[in-house]
C-alpha cells in the first residue's frame, strides 16, 4: 500500500503564540498551551468545537493529550501524543496531514506550552526515575548542552569550524530578534561578546545556548479544500519527512552528520523541490552548532562548509538566505521545546504578516525540528497558494 | 547466551576492574551499551567480552563548574569498535585532545559507583 499523496492536500489555517518570556510562578504550561490554542483557532475562524484531532506533547506530562483535551473540552476522535523532544510538533504536523488525508480527523489542533523559565527556582522541576540505565550519567555531562558541545568539537576538529563561526550564528539570530517585538533578547550582540561569554561545556559558551523562557504555541491544520473557505490564506504542507538514528549522544554514529540528511530528503521528495527552491528557513537552533549542522544537512551548503556559509551576514537580515527570522531559540523564545515556533514563523512569512522582519516574496519556506541530542529530525516544506 | 539482566552484569564486571562489552554471536558486531538483542542484526545471542582497554578520543568537552575543578567529558572509540562516554583522568581537562590514544581503567569512587575512566596512553598526543 502506498501512502496518500500529501503534497498540498492539507494546510495550516491558524497559528498563535501564547504569552512568552516570563509569565511568573502562578501560571501553568497547560494554560499557555490552551491560550495559544484559543488564539490559533480564532485566527482560523474555528472553535474548540470544530477540533476532532488533537496533537500535543508537554515535557513531564506523560498523558498530555488527555490533560489538554479535558482542559479545552475537546473530545477528539484522533489523538497523537508523539514525544520525540523538540521536533515533536513538526512530527505532529506530518501525522496530522496523514490523519486528515485518510479521513481520521478533519480539524487538527497541535498545541504546546511550557513554564520552563518560571519553574526554575520554584521547585517545580520534578525529575522522574530514569527509564533506562544510563551509560553517560556517571561522567556528569550537562544535558543537553554537552551532547551538542561534543558535536561542535568534532565538527571543529574535522572541518576547521571555529568559535567565531558559531558566534556568527548567535549574532545573526540577535539581529533578527531586534526586528521582532515579541523576542526576549533584543539588545545588540557582537561576535566578541559571544567569544568572551562564560564557557559552559567547551566549545559552547552561555551565548552559544538557547534562551530559557516560558511560552506556548498552537497550529491548526485542515484539508486544503476546507482551508480555502477559512479567513486566512492557506499555508500548504508540501512535504514532510522524519528520521531518528539514536537517543544518547554516545550512540550517534557520526557527530557531524545528523538524521536531517534523511528527513529533508524525504520532505524534498514529497514536495518535488530542492533546497534551491526554498526562500526562507526556520530551524531549531538550540545551540549555535545546530544552525551550522542543519544548513549542511538540509542541503544549503556542503558538509563541512557550514561555518563559512553562516559568516559575513549571509543568514542575517539582508543576507542571501533568511534563517530564523523571528530570532530563533537563541534570541526570540525557547520554552523547553521550540519546535512549534518554526511552523508559526514560516506560516507568517508565507502569509506576509511578519512585520518589520517580513521577507519579500516568500513562496516556499522550510521548517526543521530537532529533538533529544541531535536525535530526532523532522523537516516540513510549506508553501503559499503560488507553490501548488 | 542472552543475559536476563545485562545492566547488572555490566556493573558487576566493571566493579572487578574490567571494561565489558558484548559481541553478537550472529553478526560478530561489538555491542555497547549492553542489550538483550543485537541492534545490527536482531540476533538475541550476545556473548560478553572484556575490552583490551585501548581506544582513541573521538570528541571531548570541558566542563568547568564554578566551585570545582574542570573535568572532561569524552567519547572514546575502543579498538574493538564500540564507543563509550567517559572522562580522561591524570591529565588537566583542557589538555585532552581529539585523536589522543587512551587506556581504560576503573575508578571505584564514581558518582554512581565504579566507573570506567581513561588515562593518556602516550604523553605526546596524536593529532
Ligand atoms: Zn548482530
Helices, strands, pairings?
The complex is a heterodimer of chains A (388) and B (127).
Chain A: E1 10-17, H1 29-43, E2 53-56, H2 64-72, E3 78-80, H3 88-101, E4 107-114, H4 116-119, H5 145-159, H6 163-177, H7 191-196, E5 199-201, E6 204-205, E7 215-223, H8 224-227, E8 235-244, H9 260-271, E9 280-283, H10 288-297, H11 306-309, H12 328-331, H13 340-351, E10 364-371, E11 376-383
Parallel strand pairs in A: 2-3, 2-4, 9-10
Antiparallel strand pairs in A: 1-7, 1-8, 4-7, 5-6, 8-11, 10-11
Helix pairs in contact in A: 6-10
Chain B: H1 6-15, E1 20-24, E2 30-31, E3 46-50, E4 54-63, E5 71-78, E6 82-86, E7 101-107, E8 115-120
Antiparallel strand pairs in B: 1-2, 1-3, 4-5, 4-7, 5-6, 7-8
Tell me what the structure shows:
The complex is a heterodimer of chains A (388) and B (127). Chain A has one domain (10-122, 211-387): Thiolase/Chalcone synthase (Peroxisomal Thiolase, Chain A, domain 1). With 388 residues, chain A is α/β, with parallel strands linked by helices. Chain A is globular. Chain A has a nine-stranded mixed sheet, sandwiched between helices. Chain A has helices at residues 29-43, 64-72, 88-101, 116-119, 145-159, 163-177, 191-196, 224-227, 260-271, 288-297, 306-309, 328-331, 340-351; strands at residues 10-17, 53-56, 78-80, 107-114, 199-201, 204-205, 215-223, 235-244, 280-283, 364-371, 376-383. Chain A is built from 13 helices and eleven strands. With 127 residues, chain B is mostly beta strands. Chain B has two domains: 6-50, no CATH class; 54-126, Beta Barrel (OB fold (Dihydrolipoamide Acetyltransferase, E2P)). In chain B, strands 6-5-4-7-8 form a five-stranded antiparallel sheet. Chain B has a three-stranded antiparallel sheet with strand order 2-1-3. In chain B, a hairpin with a 7-residue loop joins strand 7 and strand 8. Chain B is globular, with a radius of gyration of 15 Å. The mean pLDDT of chain B is 93. The interface between A and B is medium-sized, with 27 and 25 residues. Zinc ion binds next to loops of chain B.
Amino acid at each position: 500500500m502506498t501512502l496518500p499523496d500529501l503534497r498540498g492536500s492539507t494546510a495550516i489555517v491558524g497559528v498563535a503564540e501564547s504569552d512568552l518570556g516570563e509569565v511568573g510562578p502562578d501560571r501553568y504550561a497547560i494554560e499557555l498551551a490552551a491560550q495559544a490554542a484559543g488564539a490559533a483557532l480564532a485566527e482560523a475562524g474555528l472553535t474548540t468545537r470544530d477540533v476532532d484531532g488533537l496533537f500535543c506533547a508537554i515535557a513531564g506530562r506523560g498523558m498530555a493529550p488527555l490533560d489538554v483535551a479535558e482542559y479545552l473540552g475537546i473530545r477528539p476522535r484522533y489523538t497523537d501524543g508523539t514525544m520525540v523532544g523538540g521536533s515533536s510538533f513538526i512530527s505532529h504536523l506530518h501525522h496530522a496531514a496523514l490523519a486528515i488525508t485518510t479521513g481520521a480527523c478533519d480539524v487538527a489542533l497541535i498545541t504546546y506550552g511550557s513554564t520552563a523559565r518560571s519553574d526554575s527556582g520554584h521547585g517545580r522541576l520534578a525529575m522522574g526515575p530514569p527509564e533506562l540505565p544510563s551509560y553517560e550519567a556517571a561522567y556528569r555531562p550537562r544535558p543537553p548542552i554537552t551532547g551538542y558541545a561534543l558535536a561542535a568539537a568534532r565538527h571543529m576538529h574535522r572541518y576547521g569550524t571555529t568559535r567565531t563561526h558559531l558566534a556568527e550564528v548567535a549574532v545573526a539570530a540577535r539581529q533578527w530578534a531586534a526586528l521582532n517585538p515579541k523576542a526576549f533578547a533584543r539588545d545588540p550582540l557582537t561576535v566578541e561578546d559571544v567569544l568572551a561569554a562564560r564557557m559552559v561545556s567547551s566549545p559552547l559558551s552561555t551565548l552559544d545556548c538557547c534562551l530559557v523562557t516560558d511560552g506556548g504555541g498552537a497550529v491548526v491544520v485542515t484539508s486544503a479544500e476546507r482551508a480555502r473557505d477559512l479567513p486566512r490564506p492557506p499555508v500548504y504542507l508540501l512535504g514532510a519527512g522524519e528520521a531518528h538514528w539514536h537517543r544518547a549522544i554516545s550512540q550517534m554514529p557520526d557527530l557531524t552528520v545528523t538524521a536531517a540528511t534523511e528527513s529533508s530528503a524525504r520532505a524534498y521528495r514529497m514536495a518535488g523541490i530542492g533546497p534551491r527552491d526554498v526562500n526562507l528557513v526556520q530551524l531549531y537552533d538550540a545551540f549555535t552548532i545546530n544552525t551550522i549542522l542543519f544548513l549542511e544537512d538540509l542541503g544549503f551548503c556542503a558538509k563541512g562548509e557550514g561555518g563559512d556559509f553562516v559568516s559575513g551576514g549571509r543568514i542575517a537580515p539582508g543576507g542571501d538566505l533568511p534563517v530564523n527570522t523571528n530570532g530563533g531559540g537563541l534570541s526570540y523564545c525557547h520554552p523547553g521545546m521550540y519546535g512549534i515556533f518554526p511552523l508559526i514563523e514560516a506560516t507568517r512569512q508565507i502569509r506576509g504578516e511578519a512585520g518589520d522582519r517580513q521577507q519579500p516574496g516568500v513562496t516556499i519556506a522550510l521548517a526543521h525540528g530537532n529533538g533529544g541530542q541531535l536525535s530526532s529530525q523532522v523537516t516540513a516544506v510549506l508553501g503559499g497558494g503560488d507553490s501548488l | 547466551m542472552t543475559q536476563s539482566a545485562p545492566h547488572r552484569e555490566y556493573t558487576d564486571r566493571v566493579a572487578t576492574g574490567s571494561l565489558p562489552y558484548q559481541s553478537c554471536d550472529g553478526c560478530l558486531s561489538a555491542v555497547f551499551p549492553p542489550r538483550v538483542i543485537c541492534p545490527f542484526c536482531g540476533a538475541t545471542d550476545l556473548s560478553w567480552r572484556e575490552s583490551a582497554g585501548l581506544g582513541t578520543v573521538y570528541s571531548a568537552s570541558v566542563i568547568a563548574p564554578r566551585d570545582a575543578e574542570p573535568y572532561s567529558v569524552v567519547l572514546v572509540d575502543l579498538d574493538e569498535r564500540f564507543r563509550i562516554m567517559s572522562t580522561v583522568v591524570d591529565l588537566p581537562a583542557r589538555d585532552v585532545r581529539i585523536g589522543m590514544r587512551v587506556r581504560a581503567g576503573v575508578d571505584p569512587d564514581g558518582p554512581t559507583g565504579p566507573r570506567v575512566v581513561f588515562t593518556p596512553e602516550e604523553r605526546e598526543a596524536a593529532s
